[in-house]
User: What shape does this take?
Amino acid sequence: MMKILYMIVAVFFLIGCSDNDDTQVEKETAKTEYTLLAWNDLGMHCFDGTDFSVFSILPPYNNLNAHLIKSDGTEDKHITADVTLTYESLNYNAHINTSSADKTNFWTYLTSLFPGATSVDDVGLTGNRTPSTVPQNMTYNALHNWWEAEGIPIVNYDDNYQVNYYPMVKVIAKDSTGAILATADVVLPVSDEMDCRKCHASTAATDDAKPAAGWENHIDALKDDKFNILKLHDEKHTISSSDLDALSAKGYDYNATLYDTAKAGTPVLCAACHSSNALGTASVGDAKSLTASLHALHAQAKDPTSGLILDDATNRSACYSCHPGEATSCLRGAMGKAVNANGEQTMQCQSCHGSMSSVGDQNRVGWLDQPNCQVCHQDTNRYESALVSGTLREVLDNRFATTPNTPTIGKSLYRYSSGHGDLQCSSCHGSTHAIYPSSHAQDNILSEKVQGHSGTIVECASCHTATPRTNDGGPHGMHSVDQYWVDEHEEVAEKGYTQCSACHGSDYRGSFLSKTFNDRAFNIEEKIKTYIRGEAVSCYDCHNGPDGEEY
Assistant: This one.
């Protein structure tokens, strides 16, 4: 039987784990008894940018979550009380963001877009502030078992007004005396690349999206495309008196046309009429959800650059026409980095989400109907598409499954799921779309400081004072990984080594599930056996197969 298997805490997103350009850093020296894990929930948050005067799809709204873990002991490891967790701005490569209200006019129009809210510069819709040099408190969410600061209004411009899509914050945990227990440096990615100008600007390359009333030709490029869009909306959809009454009941003062509403100085919130699970709004009248409306409408639109109908596109460039984007590379984690032998990207947005018309299906629940981990990571396989003939693949096992009925009945989302030690999956694997290891340095800083190398947080010593001795009690039913296991695993294997094939392959020569996450060396019968990062561990490394004697 093989001698070593490197830990698979995050085995279901291993693509690209052996990059040789990943920075190696020392483990956070300040950490002694505690470990602080922190993450952004989505891997990228979009907002409308510097101008909200015409209409808004999304406000500046970023979410920060954290776990504070006590290293010693096996129970009560989550610290949930008698401590204070705060976040503050962090200078990274001469980029620091300590304000937002001076970089966007969102707060000028906040109360028109969100009736009943109060507009205070740099304070978001939930009451949390833009990170600054003044620490801001996080709160503990008992439902999700995490510390959180939801709705942080951060933007992608630093204090020198330079574009910064990856602003950094420092999370600090202190005890009741004010002593620092642990810190974490984490990115709050944000982008204003949610852009419609490619087709809707008055200077667009084609007239495919030209309003019947003619192009707006507004002097301000940030307003021009938005007014053109409102013209098109008014041409296709009439707002009835009952719709206006329903909007008025919500606190909105809209005219009979959205164009006239915006021209009169009241910006339009798209989610005021079109339901949005992102903003928690309900539809007015027969308006479809916002995500269904946008994606279904544009599925048959032609990309003026490629000439392809967006629904026919098979790569992320179609999605990047509107979503972040060419500059931010929203899909930049392990899956987004996956390439074949020719260097071609093998996974695209469509690999998980399907075509644009699929995303725009009226029966789909936006933000909640998403592919989950076990669709691709199951039955010892790692598929590069969640879909089979346009339908999600049948799930055969739940070793790498997301949590059922989370965050609501019938839904199972990665960003809300938890696993080993009641840790959120994201706390070890990274944020959605930025799964460790990411192509962007800021995404990897947290894992580098916690365990000394980039990639999924797999080192037991990150959260334990010593590697627990277990046959199957580790993450995803994993055994412990250390010299002890190397010395003692034979007894387990003799009781039935077929169980080992789940990770080491049916031929026991190793698989992607037995790849090492970092360089390793073990003492085997007075000899040193070494593994380099990304090398698959096999029974044949030390034995002549699972039944063979040691070499």
Residues 221-236 form the longest helix (16 residues). Residues 1-31 have pLDDT under 50 and may be disordered. The chain is about 20% helix and 15% strand.
